[in-house]
Amino acid sequence: MLFNSYEFILIYLPITITLFYIISKTSKDYSLYFLALMSLFFYSWWNPAYFFLIALSLTTNYTLGRLILTNIKKHNKFLFLILGITFNLGLLSYYKYSSLIVDIINDITSGDISLGNVILPLAISFFTFQQIAFLVDSTYEKIKSINFPDYVLFVSFFPQLIAGPIVHYKEMIPQFSSLNTTETSKNLTIGITLFSIGLFKKVVFADSISDYVSPIYDQAATGNITFLQAWIAGVGFTLQIYFDFSGYSDMALGIARMFGIILPINFNSPLKATSIIDFWSRWHITLTRFLRDYLYIPLGGNRRGTPRKFFNILVTMFISGLWHGAGYQYLMWGSLHGFFILLNHSWYILLPNKLYKSKCYQKASKPIGVILTLFMVSFSFLFFRAEDLTTGYRMASSMIGINGFSLPEGIYIKLDFLNQYLKLLNITVDATSGSQIVYGSLLTISLLFIALVFPNSLDIMKNFKPALGYLETKKGVVNLLYYNKLKSLIIFKHSKLWAVIVGTSLAIGIMGIQQVSEFIYWQF
Hints:
The chain is mainly α.
């Protein structure tokens, strides 16, 4: 059941919200039990067999958590922690990485081992990491007590179950315990607004650009593509996954808020980042937090000198790539980000302090940083989107001009008066449909303008605490709409104008649902 589906929007969500608030008038505890049951039903909708998998994961981790909390001796706590991590990673490895492991063995040995078709369960990456964090926090006494109903809802809460955010136990349980169901109107207003914005982004922006991106990747899978096609596909997919994940994050925040729950911030205009380090502080924020707290810091972080720090960064980003998918292309994507982050840190180390403090550098560094970051992110996403490494290499080669420079036939005709200049530059013409490239280029430029210039949904809803950990975005390099005279027009408030805006966005989003279009992060 997708957030962007008729059965979810028109049936499941209204029924769940209505019954939740009816039950809450009798008992808050019963309303939470009901929400946990509906969350498990939501997860089981695709395949009832998934219920037994998540039930096994829930009961095992809860039991180990209880054993950790009730044991006084530290070595017993760590023993149960090791058992828990082994169980979780073993489950994840079998369902998600067994095929990759077999492929690696076959590549090394020239063998022909086959495991058959191992179906990847939904959200296994997310609830696995979430429960590992729970076990670690329990071991280090950041969690004092647990009960099974709360734990089930903590893991299975459907707005964040499938694609995050990856929440901490201490972020959610206090909210469940002190849930206030008397502010129903306020929570529904905020929730519906966030949900409408997110649905609009997904259906209108993300799904539209995918129609121009996918054919180029399909072509690259069988042969080379042009320089311009590679850039449209690279930047286009960056925008597709940007609005896809941004839309999902808004919808998740909105749905949770309809029940009076505030989820942590997970997405904060990453394409406005001025460096690749800044990008990872804005993109999938809770995953970055998990990797930092439970991998990078335990490896030594930046406490053991620069060489060890760089090694830890590379390992962390390699694991990030592996977490996203079981394929060489995901490992390449994660490794590229690790390399780019090392370059970023090296620049800060080598940059003379006098130059760093100069006015010229301060003025130029941000816009140049945005452009460079966009290129690095788009270049690495070529591999993320590709079906295999070969396709990724073809895309990357075309993007940096190794395969030459060419223009589609339609564009060549439109630029006929520049023929002589094109010949001097040795720019050739291919038979690709010019109109597709023209429309794809215009849509890419339009969406890039929206991503760079317009405020994000959290800034629009800033007066209503839209997410845990949210701080208002500072005026950026190209945040043209943040000027004080216009700012008041784009901040949400209870008014007829905003009622029309939200209603229109929701109506367009619902009417725009034409076919099944999964969120990209639901694949992980």
